[in-house]
Write a structure and sequence with these properties.
The structure holds two protein chains of two kinds. Chain A is mainly α. In chain A, strand 1 and strand 2 form a beta hairpin. In chain B, helix 1 runs parallel beside helix 8, helix 4 packs across helix 5 and helix 7 packs antiparallel against helix 8. The chains are: A mainly alpha, B mainly alpha. At the A-B interface, helix 3, helix 5 and helix 9 of A face helix 2, helix 4, helix 7 and helix 9 of B.
């Protein structure tokens, strides 16, 4: 514990999150980012990112569902029989998705129309299910919430990046505000269509691969001693 | 009381064609990407998965249509749609698995391992949600489910073939794996969407 990196006080003392809070957080947001490293949940990462605003709403939706379902699955982890854990997880996740969908429909109807089926499809989003299965079932509630939050944030950050890039190149704007004037910039329609989404994400994953390969070779040099 | 919905005035056959080609559920709506990336390395595997998806998608779209408009809408419980759909899909897949195991060992070994994967394939749930959002009637829903399944199978088969061929090419290291598959999928999506203006799906 003496030379551990400076983290939140509660985690340092091994208190509420058992000393794992910060490590869990970093893991989810960067080192093991759900989209760019694990390549999970990319359906929505491709589908809703033609505009930055849509991407961020989707990110919030995933954070909400991931935190909520992780908390409840973790609380119930001792009472869920192993055999039916999948269906129990799906039921809990679906409950949170329905909640978010109803909130969106009540207060933000135009966005609900634009996102279409993709809010409902969070139920089958591999990230939420994966975190429930891999983390919340084995860990106490608070650290599970941190894990859900971190993975949700990691997802939202990548979605935001793709959304900003596609909206800027495809419509010449950010949040609907014109950035690239039409007098000198010809909008690249491809970026807001489906093929653009595939290609942008393909390049983004390649970028992450290249960065990680570089980091690995830097890490390996002092340790390997060749 | 019968549901009061105004279905779009499009022939079911047009919807079938559109669901396979111009509005392909994978290439235009990005659904079913997880199993698409994981199972498209071998042509045989992707064929098996494709056939299973066609079957399950057609059947569950029809069942979900019946349950939604026959049960949920009259009782004013539309918000439960998500949870009911996913339960029906999971139960149906389980049932088919048991049925196939009992009656056809050969088919079970060919398809069996793919069936559990299908429950979490978002294309299946997606087809049910599109059916509700686009207000299809029964015939349109059935052909949309079938067409979407065929479209998905077609896309995964084509990519499996391309990935096989790509084994002979030198791909830059950073692009290997998922990255290059995404990019060729993007190029394929352009070809599929080339005729997008000709048919209407909603």
């Amino acid at each position: 514990m003496s030379n551990a990196p400076v983290a939140c006080g509660a985690c340092q003392t091994g208190g509420i999150c058992g000393g794992k809070g910060m490590a869990t957080f970093k893991e989810g947001v960067w080192a093991n980012n759900p989209i760019s490293i694990q390549v999970l949940g990319i359906c929505s990462a491709l589908a809703v990112t033609s505009k930055l605003e849509n991407s961020l709403v989707m990110g919030v939706a995933l954070i909400f569902v991931c935190v909520g379902s992780n908390l409840f699955i973790s609380l119930l982890r001792k009472s869920i029989p192993r055999k039916i854990r999948m269906i129990a997880e799906v039921a809990i996740i679906a409950t949170f998705v329905i909640l978010f969908d109803q909130i969106l429909k009540a207060f933000y109807w135009p966005m609900s129309l634009q996102l279409g089926p993709y809010v409902g499809l969070i139920i089958t989003n591999c990230i939420v299910m994966g975190r429930a299965e891999a983390f919340a079932l084995q860990n106490p509630p608070l650290v599970s919430v941190v894990d859900g939050l971190a993975n949700g944030l990691g997802y939202a950050a990548v979605l935001g990046a793709i959304g900003a890039f596609r909206e800027l190149l495809g419509s010449g704007s950010i949040f609907g505000v014109t950035m690239l004037s039409e007098t000198w910039y010809v909008k690249n329609q491809l970026m807001i269509l489906a093929p653009g989404a595939f290609i942008v994400l393909g390049f983004l994953i390649a970028l992450f691969n290249a960065l990680n390969a570089k980091k690995d070779s830097n890490d390996a040099k002092p340790a390997g001693g060749h | 009381m019968p549901p009061e919905i105004t279905s779009p005035d499009i022939s079911s056959l047009v919807i079938l064609i559109a669901a396979i080609f111009t509005s392909n559920i994978l290439l235009a709506n990005f659904l079913g990407m997880c199993s698409f990336l994981a199972c498209s390395k071998q042509i045989n595997t992707s064929l098996g998965l494709g056939v299973a998806v066609i079957f399950v998608m057609t059947a569950t779209t029809a069942i979900n249509y019946g349950v939604y408009y026959g049960l949920l809408v009259p009782m004013g419980l539309e918000f439960l749609g998500f949870i009911i759909f996913i339960a029906i899909i999971a139960a149906f897949v389980q049932f088919v698995e048991m049925f196939v195991e009992r009656f056809s060992q050969g088919l079970y070994h060919a398809l069996g391992i793919f069936l559990p994967l299908i429950t979490v394939n978002c294309a299946i749930l997606g087809a049910a949600l599109f059916m509700i959002i686009r207000k299809y009637d029964f015939m349109q829903s059935l052909l949309f489910g079938f067409g979407a399944g065929v479209g998905w199978a077609l896309a995964i088969l084509l990519i499996a073939g391309l990935r096989k061929k790509m084994g002979y090419s030198i791909v830059p290291q950073a692009f290997q794996g998922v990255s290059i598959v995404m990019i060729i999928t993007g190029i394929m999506a352009m070809a599929f969407m080339g005729f997008a203006g000709m048919v209407r799906i909603q």
